[in-house]
Amino acid sequence: MRSIRKRIINYFLRIFTIPKVKNEIARYAKGFMGEASRYSTGIKGEAIETKEVFVILTRYIRKEKITKEEKKQFKRLVIDLLKGTGVFVPVMLIPLPFVSTLLLIIMDHLLLTLNIQILPSSFYPEKKQGLLTTDAIEKDLVKEISKEKLKK
What we know:
mainly alpha
């Protein structure tokens, strides 16, 4: 039994120490770190936007004058708030937190490839750099193909 385990471990060690495989794993790890920072930045942005909604709502309740821009901003921020609640709450109700987080990330990426944004706007950067969209995937493939051609 131990010899089988040792063989399996040695097999995976050989595979993961191949330079090409190492580079791919590093690339995926870098992408994951980028996604993690995007989600943490999005959560911080949502907290700030929620505070802005609260300030505008407080002013409205006090019957202070609110400009048209503030009304538009309030509407957009409330929609974002409801969008986040509608996505996060059902996914986070799954008993295993790590699985629910992975499910959310996978669902977000699959829908992003169809240009559907299910998360609030603060989760998507203005320039869309580093997002897994069809355009980004196509650009990555073109880069990889051109690198391979240059090597040959």
